[in-house]
Amino acid sequence: MIGVAAASASKRVILVAGMAGLAAGAMSMAVGEYVSVSSQRDAEQADIGLETHELESEPEAELQELAMIYVNRGLEQALALKVAKQLSAHDRLGAHMRDELGIDRTALGRVRYKQRGSPRQALRPSRSVPLMALLVAPAALRIPVIAAFSLASLAALGAIGGHLGGAPTGRAALRVTIGGALAMTVTAVIGRILGISVG
After folding, report:
1. pLDDT score recorded for residue 67
2. Any residues with CB less than 8 A from the CB of 165 and at least 6 apart, and which?
3. Is the terminal CB of the chain with fewer CB neighbours within 10 Å at N or C?
4. What pLDDT, on a 0 to 100 scale, did the predictor assign at position 178?
5. 3-state SS of the chain: helix, strand, coil percent to 5?
6. How far is 107 from 88, CA to CA, in rounded Å?
7. What pLDDT sits at residue 152?
């Protein structure tokens, strides 16, 4: 929106650009999330298929491999082998999935970042902030008002995202704000250059 505003576009054109960017961003995030989860699920299924084949073709070697995992975690050799045998008798593939591959069968293919809320979920309301800023800004102050509203929103929501993710809130807010300011500056310069050249 700032790039379009810097090209001296009308309020209606800036609003259309903002709505188009909002829709494109939402669709991009949705497709990205789907591709990410699908790729994760495919990789996990491939690992499980390979592990199943190895369990069928080399059961003793796989048992020893599982026992060595427990040895590396601090168990004595004899106890580690006993634990590996008992877990294998109960659910051989499940034991290897969990302890060798790091795959939780109950969460297979799901998005795993669900604890303490998702910063991505917290950031969703920020998408409409530039549009609201455009609606209240005087024509002569469109760019600074949009930028100020957007940066304030980014700072606040960056801090919230950092808090929800367990990171320092100040650092998270500063990182998001600086990134947003750089992006706005680049788009404003591009919009200004293209506006002058087209005009």
Report:
1. 92
2. 116, 119, 172
3. C
4. 93
5. 85, 0, 15
6. 20
7. 92
DSSP annotation string for 15-74: HHHHHHHHHHHHHHHHHHHHHHHHHHHHHHHHHHHHHHHHHHH-HHHHHHHHHHHHHHTT
**What CA–CA distance (Å, rounded) separates 79 from 73?**
12
Q: Residue 82 has what pLDDT?
A: 92
pLDDT score, position 85: 92
**Cα distance between residue 55 and residue 68, in whole Å:** 16
10: helix, coil or strand? coil
> Do residues 3 and 185 touch, judged by C-beta distance below 8 A?
no
Collapsed DSSP state (helix, strand, coil) of residue 7: coil
Give the pLDDT confidence score for residue 122 in this predicted structure: 44
| pLDDT at residue 6 in the model | 84
End-to-end CA distance of the chain: 18
- Using alpha carbons only, give the angle 15, 33, 13 rounded to the nearest 5 degrees: 10
- Intervals of the chain under pLDDT 70: 105-127, 196-199
Q: What is the H or E stretch that residue 152 is in?
A: helix 142-165
Place of tokens 């009308």: 10
Place of tokens 């070697």: 61
